[in-house]
Amino acid sequence: FFFGMAKRSWSTWAFFLCLWLSINADERVTICKNPDTNPQTITIASLDLPAYFEQGAYLGRCPSEDADSPDVEVPNICSQMSLPVCQCPATYNWLDGEQLCGTHCMAVGEGICYLGHETYGQPSTARCGKWECDFGHVRCRRPDFEPVRAPDCNNQNEDGEDVTVVFSKKGRVRSLHRHLLEVFCFSSTGTPVRCSPPPAESPSASPSESPSASPSESPSPSELSSPSPAECPYLCEDLPVCQCPEDYDYTSFGEVCDTHCMEQDEYYCHPGKGNSFLPCSRLECGPGQIRCRRPVVDPTAPPPRNPRTFFLARGGESCDDACGAVGTVCDHDLVQEAALSPAHCQDILEHLGKTTHLGGLYEDDSTGCTYHPRAPGWYELFKKDGQSTCSARTEDLDRLRVCACQNLREERHFDDLSELGDQNFCLDASDTVATVQGRVSLGTGAGNGGAFTCNCVELCELHSLTESTVSLTNYENRGATNDFRGTILQITVNFLNTIAGAVFNFDASSALEIHSGGVASFTAAATFAGSGVFRAREGSTVSFSSASTFQIATEVSGQFLVESEQVSFEEVVTLTGSNALMDVRSGSRIVASRTVTVSSSSEIRGTSGTMQFDGGLSMASSSVMNLTSTTVSVSTWSASSSTMSFDGSTVTSQTWSMSSSTVTIGTGTAMSVSGGAQLDASTMTLSSSTSTFTSVQASTLTNGGTIQGRGGCNMQFTGGLQTTSSTMDLQQSTVGCGHLQMSSSTLSASSSTTVTASQVTFSQTTVQMTSASFTSSGTMSDDGGSLTFTTSTIVVTSTFTSTSSSYSLTGSSMTVTQHTITSTTITLTDVSSQFLLDGSGAGGGSLVGSLASGAVFSGLGFFRHRTGLLRLLAGSTIGCGLQLSPNAQILRRTRALQQTDLTTTNPAATACGNSIGSTTVASGASLSIDTSCSFGTESWDVAGTTSTYTTSVAATGAVDVQSGGLLVLNTVSTSTNPFSITGTFTLSGSIEVLVTDSSTTAIVILMKWDDTSCTDITSSVTVYGCTSCTTSVVASSTATSCYLRLSIGMTSSDSNDAWWGLLALLALIPCAAGLAWYCCRIRTQDPEEISYDEVEVADGGYEGYE
Questions:
Q1: Which of 262-266, 424-428, 671-675 is predicted most confidently?
Q2: Exposed, middle or buried by CB within 10 Å (0-12, 13-18, 19+), for 351?
């Protein structure tokens, strides 16, 4: 009792300790020294207690180091004992958390009660485990708690007084063991006195010594178990009833144990942990687990006389527990009936002989109608969420549930199978359900019967030791489970299931067959389980208006209609016969986890439903699938000589393999194949702008197969498409493809069709495109093919490789980034056709094009080269126009500015944004530099000022314009990019500068070359489009580079500007005379001659030369 002082102030504790020590100064006491390190039991003088307490010692003997050893005496705290009844306030809470405790602490005469305190230095985590009472207070029992008196009570102490032995429930907690620390006795006057410890073990009371309980009442805790001292080191009556699985074995080393460990809310139990190999001696529970008592059935309590009447279960029992103990099952309907209202509950309790005065409706749990014996008698209706269930248990062991049970089985035997008809099974004489289970044992052979109705609420069995075949007109199920063993049940008129969640179980020798003319209707959810077969014969109709599941093989030769719910197939499904039809209708769904086989002439039809073939779909010759507004997903889809039509549907498949089949993807249909499509000698047609087909993995089209696209459809072969001896016929279609590989095939595209591929490989392939677009975002190669393009566009954004092929472009444009052409003829039939080598911005030193021997460009169109290096090898021919330019637009604005008609020069070339090597412009030839283009940047020293300039064209060697040659610097403005020559520049011919914008005054650099002596070449330079522009040559500060400079809108800064103006006026006189002479000459000119500014150059002519 000293440890209770830890909860009070130190001064109070010291006062009472000193008082006790003064009274008991000569007394010697037994304590446990060093309990946590080296436990030792010693006897000391009471005056020495404070010093030992400070070291962690406590009163009483030390517990054994191995409590599980058979030689250890475990204090018999479980013994039946006598405590005074607690005198507590009416509002006192008897609970520790959610656990109702049997004993408490009480201040006698003060009306003060409490659970108790933890042992000083040894905290307890168990419910009802705080057993220390304050000084002067006593341990007492709950008023309705009836512990059994110990046989060693009412003995005498050392002084010869008659005393009652009471075990103090003070102690330390270790692995849920409670160890005795000290023993008190109560004298006849109720005064607590010290007495001798009791024997180590006391015999437990036998069941016959305990108060008995009627079948309607809860047994006392002592009736439920008589635990051994080792197994129950605390009051077992304080433990909750174990809630373990139904098949839990309550034994330990072959003996039944009264207490176990339980994991709350998980229904997991075990006898306990520990090192002992003795039965029921492992008492330690794991984290989150509590000790509980076994729900032992009182063998003396008789079962209810009538299983359909109400009775009271024991405290802590569910109705399932109570009914199962007497071989029956809970009657859910009657349990619900008892819970209709509090008044109804009170009426039932009064019929059971219970007097009740108070009660009501509560929502703590779902135990339904209950009785509590506390005064003055309570009727309590518990309906959590409005429900009362058979499995609910009461947490208050004194509260008793109202339950009702049902008998299990009815047995019948029919040797003559024809007698099976016209039977109402599981019904009594009053046509009410009498049993919940029933079995019909069938004789051997076959027989015909009439109608059979299964009324067994729980289980209806049709069993035969040998295989029996029974033909019935009607079979109606009203029970939860139908079990067929060795029975083939044939239905000729009607099979009806109206019970939601019904299960039809078939063994391997059983089957349910709906025969011709027969109808099977499932208006409530059903499951077909086991290893048998469900057969819908030809001429039969099976309809589902509720969700159902087939876990057995299914064979359909008739009509299988899914009308509004989901039907799941977990085994193989076979549609066979010309009349076999699986029809999935609006709002319905089928899910097949195993293979579905559609045999010859069978049909799958869907309208606004969903089909999910997770196990695959196999369609045989002449099979048909017609889907409208249906969603279909298939894992592996194969078809041979089949016909499929999809309209307004969504179709997905992992793999799709068609052989000699026809597939039509109609309006509003999207089909997706994640694992690749294989079309062998098959035809796939997409018919409208809302028709789409997507194949994620590589697909194939072989052996005369055809893909047709019409009406603006969309096809995406993301994983690539490989065709062999097949045809792609595309009109108004959009086709996207990974790697397009066509061998000995035909690609026909017209009417605004767009074909895009990441890579293209043609081999012996014919391509015919009219008003179409063809793009390869990667490489394109062809070998031995014939390709014809009319008013079409071809773009290859990577390398174009052609060998021994023939191209014809009419009104078409073909653009490639790089190319290697060998023995291929490309004919540009008209002036509007072009072959453009883009170069993708490559520098002059980067090879982007190669024309090898046998490569021929011919026709009236143009070969245009934008950037990079083009290499013409021996044996190659360019018989069409050749143009070096980065843009394909005709620059008509410069025609009237040019003095020389460049179309008369041969050869003629233009450059823009290019890099060229050493260049010679011979007599009669021309090189035009477009200064509006950009090539790169260089840092130049112009007359001592260093700046960074953007170049238009860069020559990496010497440039020589020979006599009669012409260098043209066109599109000159204030933002002109100069022509850079990294080498010498020789000018024996002439330079023409074409200014397009002179509205702003500026000085621009036209070109740069390397030379130590900068010769003035301005006398060979003519400026057009600017009357106020002048040219000059300036050098770098180190005299290593020369620059041709143009002053726009500026004249000389000479101080004699006025004289220069006068000279200019005088110069007008000979100019006027020359103009008059020229006009006279024009009048006598040949009529067929025209002036340059009247020339009309067609689109496709030389860019920049108009």
A1: 671-675
A2: exposed
The token pair at 417 is 């199978």
What are the CA-CA distances from residue 54 to residues 3, 21, 203, 317 (Å)? 12, 16, 38, 48
Does residue 887 contact residue 912 with C-beta atoms inside 8 Å? yes
| Continuous segment of H or E residues that includes residue 490 | strand 481-497
Q: What size, in residues, is the chain?
A: 1106
Query: What is the Rg, in whole angstroms, of the alpha carbon atoms belonging to the chain?
Result: 53
**836, containing H or E segment:** strand 834-837
Average pLDDT over all residues of the chain:
76
Which residue in 472, 527, 529 sits closest to 495, CA to CA? 472
Distance CA 987, CA 105 (A): 123
Q: 10 Å Cβ neighbour count for 612?
A: 19
Residue appearing with tokens 């004194």: 398
Owner of token pair 């072989």: 702
Q: DSSP string of 238-273? A: GSPBP---TT---EETTEE-SEEEEETTTTEEES-B
Reading the block at residue 994, the tokens are 């074409």
> Which residue is associated with the tokens 């016909």?
643
Which distant-in-sequence residues (6+ apart) come within 8 Å of 587 by Cβ? 564, 608, 609
- CA dist., res. 747 & res. 726, Å (int): 9
Q: If DSSP codes are grouped into helix, strand and coil, which group holds residue 194? A: strand
Q: Which two tokens stand for residue 145?
A: 């708690």
Q: How confident is the model at residue 10 (pLDDT cuts 50, 70, 90)?
A: very low
Global pTM exceeds 0.70 = no
Residue 312, number of CB atoms within 10 A of its CB:
26
CB count within 10 Å of CB 66 equals 12
| Angstrom distances, CA of residue 982 to CA of 919, 920, 947, 1039 | 12, 14, 17, 15
Q: Is the CB of residue 695 less than 8 Å from the CB of residue 737? A: no
Checking DSSP bridges between strand 754-763 and strand 727-731, what pairing results, if any? unpaired
Q: Let me know: does 699 contact 676? Beta carbons within 8 Å.
A: yes
pLDDT tens per residue across span 565-617:
788 888 888 888 888 888 888 888 888 888 899 988 889 998 888 999 998 99
Distance CA 195, CA 158 (A): 7
User: Alpha carbon of 722 to those of 701, 718, 1066: distances in Å?
Assistant: 6, 12, 80
> pLDDT at position 446, please?
63
Cis (ω within 30 of 0) for the bond into 376? yes
What tokens were used for 87? 């005198």
Q: Please give the C-alpha separations between residue 369 and each of 146, 281, 392, 1026, in angstroms, as whole numbers.
A: 25, 39, 11, 111
One-letter amino acid of 871 = R
Angle at 85 between CA 84 and CA 91, to 5 degrees: 145
**Scanning the structure block, which residue is given the tokens 């290096």?**
869
Q: Which long-range contacts (CB under 8 A, 24 or more apart) does 352-361 make?
A: 352/216, 352/310, 352/311, 352/312, 352/402, 353/216, 354/216, 354/312
Note the pLDDT of residue 122.
54
Q: Using the predicted structure, report yes or no on whether residue 284 has a pLDDT greater than 60.
A: yes
Which residues touch 379 (CB under 8 Å, ≥6 apart)? 342, 345, 346, 349, 356, 358, 359, 369, 370, 371
d(CA 153, CA 79): 10
Contact 991, 1019 (CB under 8 A): no
DSSP at 1069 = H
| Half-sphere exposure at residue 665, Cβ-oriented, CA atoms within 13 angstroms | 26
Q: Tell me which long-range contacts 320-323 makes (C-beta under 8 A, separation of at least 24).
A: 320/390, 320/391, 321/295, 321/393, 322/401, 322/403, 322/405, 323/390, 323/403, 323/405, 323/406
From residue 467, alpha-carbon distances to 449, 452, 485, 515 in Å are 17, 19, 8, 19
Output the CA–CA distances (angstroms, integers) from residue 709 to 397, 639, 655, 664, in the order listed. Answer: 78, 21, 21, 10
